[in-house]
Amino acid sequence: MNASPILLAIAGIALLSAMDALIKHLAETHNVLLVTFARYAIGACFAALIWARAGASTITRDMWRAHGARGLVIALSATSFFWSLSVLPLVEALTLSFIAPLLVPFVARVLLGERVRVISLIAGALGFVGVLIALQGAPEAAAGSRRFLGVCAILFAAITYALSITLMRMRARLDGAPIVNLLASFIPCLIVAAPAIVFSAPPHLEAAPLFVVLGLLGATGVYLMARAYAGAEAQTLAPIEYTALIWASLLGYLVFGETPRPPVLIGAAVIIAACLIVAWDERRLSPKLESP
Question: Which domain covers residue 83, as residue numbers?
């Protein structure tokens, strides 16, 4: 029985949210380039296992060319986002990154020819309102040039992320989730390898298990997202990105003992409502989308 694309996306975002929290922790003691390289190098190993278990389908020259462009976008987006996590509070960085789902319908329109549906725009806007509600009363980052650069980095990461997940939708339908997952780790790993080696100190030995977990979270999360985008339109799944705020709040409570503020709970309820609207719209349109 195939899982719903929405459920796959929610699970994938949950794992990637845990990965973001771990990245923020590792970036406190390691160069961001090293963390980025480790995330994709170790992630590529796990992705290769998933690809092999799925039958090790052939990776063609056309696939390498197409995923090479997406790999560059991923490397730029990830490095910018990971660096912003070292400068901005986690909740603030996630919130600013949530402009990406609002851009997806328009990027998908240009690249994939998907018609922009009003319900997708409404759900995306409603989800963003939930994020704004959840931010009320949140502590602000210290002012300064690093904060300004951090905001610029996260906005750049959001724009390139919207492009990368739209390209994932395009290739997931053609190549399948295992290949998309493998090349989404392997190619960015190649791109950031040289800068990471040149500008970074060696990793601390005691952090090695955390780097392994980092790669596992990234590979599994991207694989689930690739499966989700292979089965649903990019604009349908874009508002699901807002669930990252819910996962971040849960991780803060369970792992760090942080009790979510009332605005976070209210905002989470609004975000869930936006996701339910998307789920209802997908169920309503699924017979039409599957018909010849």
Answer: 5-282
